[in-house]
Each structure stands twice: as structure tokens, then as C-alpha cells.
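Predict the structure of microtubule-severing ATPase.
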Amino acid sequence: TGGSSEIKNTSPKLQTGAVSSTASHPRKVAAQKSSAHIPPLRSQGNNAPTMERPAQGSAGGYDAKLVEMINSAIVDHSPSVKWEDIAGLELAKQTLMEMVILPTKRRDLFTGLRKPAKGLLLFGPPGTGKTLLAKAVASESNATFFNVSASSLTSKWVGEGEKLVRTLFQVAISRQPSVIFIDEIDSIMSTRTESENEASRRLKSEFLVQFDGVASNSGDLVTVIGATNKPQELDDAVLRRLVKRIYIPLPDANARRVLLKHKLKGHAFSLPDRDLVRLVAETDGYSGSDLQALCEEAAMMPIRELGANILTVQANQVRGLRYGDFQKAMSVIRPSLQRSKWSELEMWNREFGSS
Ligand code: ADP
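Done. Here is the predicted structure for microtubule-severing ATPase.
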């Protein structure tokens, strides 16, 4: 693509990977350094973004080690999640389609009043598909997916978080369209407290500066998606920038049925319709990942019955799963979200959510 050839043509001096504070185009540097580890820039479709604007706030140069770390540990090379893989969440899918996917496909239509928002928040109980959705957005829009876990950001990069955030945005700009997904965003972007340390205060400010940089440049196709199950703890300044806030609730009965069927695919089971209906009703309050755990636990029941025969039994002689297995599994695998937390999230959605 045009993007990759530009990367190859950049000055060889910059390819050494040394920390350079004199780099005139950090976005090129980041992209070119990354070319050794990541696929070349994809075709941008019409109105390809300009690759010449230096990233905001990059006066301090870039750190090749950080660029490398971002390319190896943060760029997710295979977010091949499809819309169909995600059960339910129709409203969230529709909003994301409008906000992120269509604008990358038809940039000419999404200008002025229709210019896409650069920041959005997915909030809801853990294990409900927020990460899956962000991955699906990235793969459907052919975007580079930056998967940032906020807690690892603070634990692994103590004192360097600020620099990492700056470099992250530089790499994201150079590899756009990009989706920066920040899981557990509340843990780094929470309301300021007295005891907040200097490093986390600086990290937060750097995030805001970088975010405003991409938001003010309509040529940049970088979308920041934050995910949290504690939206009430988010800093106001951050919340203001994540203009669309999409509630990702626990799966409803229909979504639970789809999820259960999906998880059981490829396994022998005998669950007549009435048992499935019972199971769906009894798993009210279970998240997608709770259902996954429930199916895994149920799948172990026929194996446990084998006792010592487990070493000799033929795989096709293991009996299929039945309702009783799930019933037993339900006494071990309980919904992980307390009801009180659930209603807190619903209240927050009514006050601040977009849907
Ligand atoms: P979150 O980011 O909301 O904590 P994830 O997206 O990481 O949750 O989901 C965790 C796991 O739970 C997924 O890998 C998937 O197996 C399952 N899951 C949760 N919600 C859904 C859903 N709506 N459709 C399909 N699978 C789901």
C-alpha cells in the first residue's frame, strides 16, 4: 500500500531503533520501526489519511523499545471476531456500526455534523462481550487493534505509563485506521483523589492530550474504546471525551439460548427443547463468561463418572451432556455479578448512557 512504501522510504538513520528526540516525523518513525514486526499498512480506501502530521505532544521523541513492545504486546494481530460470533447486543452493534465501521468505509459521508466521535465507552458487567465487540469493530473496519489492559499498563510500566501512552497514539496514528481498546479504563482514568501519585496523574493528562490530538484532526481515523464495569469511578474529563457510552448488559434469555447452543457446538448432548428452556430461565443473571464456565463444568460430569476407566475408554463412548449435568454445575458456577452491582450499572446507564 501507499502507507507501507512510505515507511520503507524513510531515512535509514531512523531505522536503527535508537531513542531519537530529533525525529521530525514521529508518526513515520513509529510506523517504520513497526514494519519489521507487523503487517504493512492496509489500504485506506477513499480519502486515505495523510501520513505527514507529527503526533501531538511528541516533542520528547520516541522510544524504540516502547514501539517494539507496543507492536509485539499491544497490537493484536488476529482480532478475527465477526459480528455473528457475538450473541445478542443488537443495539450496541448498531451503534458501533454507525460510529466506527461505516465512517471508515464511507469517509466522504461522515463529515461535518456527521463526523464520527473519536471516543466511546462500553460499560457493563464483566464477561458480557465488551472485548469481543471491540475486536469485532476492529476486524470489520480493517483497523489495527491495540489491546491495552489498563492494569498491566500501571503495573508493568510504572513511571513509564505516560511515555507509553504517547508512543501508543503515535503508532496508532501511523497505522490507522486504528482502534485503541483500553480494558478496565477506570483503573487508570479514575476520579482524582488526594492520594493519587504523580505518575498516574501525568499518565492521565498525557492520555487527554493525545486523545485531543487525534480528536481535533479530522484526517485521523483513530478510535478510542474504553471498557469498564465501574463507569461511576471514571474521571469527568475522560467521560466527557468518551461521548458515546454504550451499555453492555447481561445476556437476556434469547442471547443466553444462543450462547448456550453456541458453546455446546461440537459436543454430544441431549437437551430437548424443554430442558433448554429451563436452562435458559435458570441462568438468568449469568454473564457470557459465566455461561462458558458453566458449560465447561457440565462437560466434566461425564468424565468424572468414568473413574479409573478414563484411561481406557474410547472417546466416542463418553456419554453426552444432559440437563442434570448443568443442574449440578449450577451449584458450583454461580453468576459472578451481585444484583446490587447490576442495578447500580443500570442506574448509571439511565443517567449517562447513550442508549
Ligand atoms: P468483557 O470484555 O465484557 O469482560 P469478553 O468480551 O472478554 O468480556 O468476554 C469473555 C468471554 O465470554 C468471551 O471470550 C466469550 O467466550 C464469552 N462471551 C461473553 N459475552 C458474549 C457474547 N455476547 N457473545 C458470545 N460470547 C460471549
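The mean pLDDT is 78.
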